[in-house]
Prior knowledge:
Layout: H1 3-6, H2 31-39, H3 42-56, E1 71-74, H4 79-91, E2 96-102, H5 108-121, E3 124-129, H6 132-152, H7 158-183, E4 187-189, H8 194-197, E5 211-212, H9 214-221, H10 224-234, E6 260-262, H11 272-282, H12 287-290, H13 292-295, H14 300-311, H15 315-330, H16 338-345, H17 348-351, H18 354-376, H19 384-390, H20 397-400, H21 405-424
Parallel strand pairs: 1-2, 1-4, 2-3, 4-6
Antiparallel strand pairs: 5-6
Helix pairs in contact: 4-11, 6-7, 7-15, 18-21, 19-21
Amino acid sequence: MTDSLNKCVCEICGISAQNPDSLLTETGECEKCQRLAEKGASALTDFLAPLHAEIDAGFPRRKANKAPYDVLMMFSGGKDSSLVSHSLSEDHGLRVLLFNLQFPFMSDTAKANLGRVASALSLDLMTFRIVEEVWGHVLRTVVKDTPHYVEKYKLPRTAYCAFGCIFCGHFHNVVATNLAARMGIPYIADGQDLDQIFPFGNSGHLSHPPVMTPDSFREALGGDVYAAYSDILSRLRDGAYLNTLYDLTPESTVGLELPTWITPGALLEVSQEARIKRCEDLGILDKKSADPAKTNCSIVPMWNFVNYKRYGIPYHTYEYRHWNQRRAKALLIEKDLHKLLDEYENRDSMNTDMEKLREQRIPFYRAFEHALELTAKGAKFETPEDVIDALDGFITEEACKIISQDDMRRLAQEVIETIRWSQYFDINVLGVSRSSNAE
């Protein structure tokens, strides 16, 4: 593993000592992780207290609300945002407007879920289609220059592999906040769960409080990820998209009444299986439609391949899984949360040893790369079967022991998706350079 990725990082949350807000202790932990552990059983209770207070008070900002909606719900079409939408509407009586920011690479299942859930819950749905010039510029920039922006803005090491996902999240935040503020909607809700937002150590770039007041959100806008966001946006058409719905800075919010951000999903059961079953029991989504494998965005395979090219490993996959497992373990500071850890460790994605995953995935991505090289030479892959046929004879007998039939089918589908989106956005994924941060 690389020096810049692995040395001088917190043993728990992975924050780099190069980050100006971090200070590692002699035991290899950052100060925030150490304080979190010292705080013990009250840490999670204190973290969730503002959300419980907001709920117990009946969402007070809606009382003076004259707008037709109380909440703009960040709706993806997946199980989490569907359950939160149901809870806000049915359990708390809020007037919910489902909001979906439409990217071209949204999965077909998630697209179908939009209208299905809105109809099942009798909720209004508003979709906002991204100007493809904007998102194409963002994708090409992130694919080409992730290490540059991570180092320039001193982002956590997880950003090396997940900068596209982080940036996408902030993209959603900016557009939704602008719209809610201009429509007079007092709350924005997202579908994230506890593991995604719990402030584990110093990983604040990927976490946030379950309730963000307008003032705290303005403060977040002055942070490093939003600065990187504005930097990239400013480079498109000499800043033509600044001061639009795609742009939000502390300065642009002066005089604007911002909404309060809430994350009710922090109170959902942690088990994915339990959430899927609840969706079925409520008649919101069936199991097939609620499966994350069907509702995740279809551009993830391209990110995985780019990370393989840049770092020599399927970096997005193992770094995120290992990091999430560590966050789940951090929740053990309260002994009543042993069950939570058990549920996480029973999930296949949390069980795989990093070195074993690396051993398994390298042959997978070598085959992946070969298929893309064939495409560059003129090969046409319209179906997964075309990919599998083309790889016949390339994958060694030894690799076949590692790459299962299920792996082959998944590889073929990921190749198809990567070809699709790299061509759509004119991104040369084969030309991604090996990073100086790679071993």
